[in-house]
Write a structure and sequence with these properties.
single chain; mainly alpha; 0% strand
Length: 64
């Protein structure tokens, strides 16, 4: 499909948001919320943290 078929010309927009809210790019508040979420999930039995050489039941990317 040609650009003219879309009704408007296409242009690239510079975004400084990506990869905001992805691992390695969390704000301190977001990282704190993730930790609180992990505690809540562990209390409810939905998540098991890494312990004694055993991996966690879910990685942080999945929990996000």
């Amino acid at each position: 499909m040609a650009d003219q078929d879309l009704g408007a010309p296409l242009s690239r927009v510079q975004s400084y948001q990506y990869p905001a809210t992805h691992m390695g790019h969390l704000s301190p508040e977001q990282a704190g919320s993730l930790e609180k979420f992990k505690v809540l999930c562990a209390q409810k039995g939905y998540y098991r943290p890494a312990k004694g050489g055993q991996n966690a039941s879910h990685d942080d990317e999945t929990l996000l």
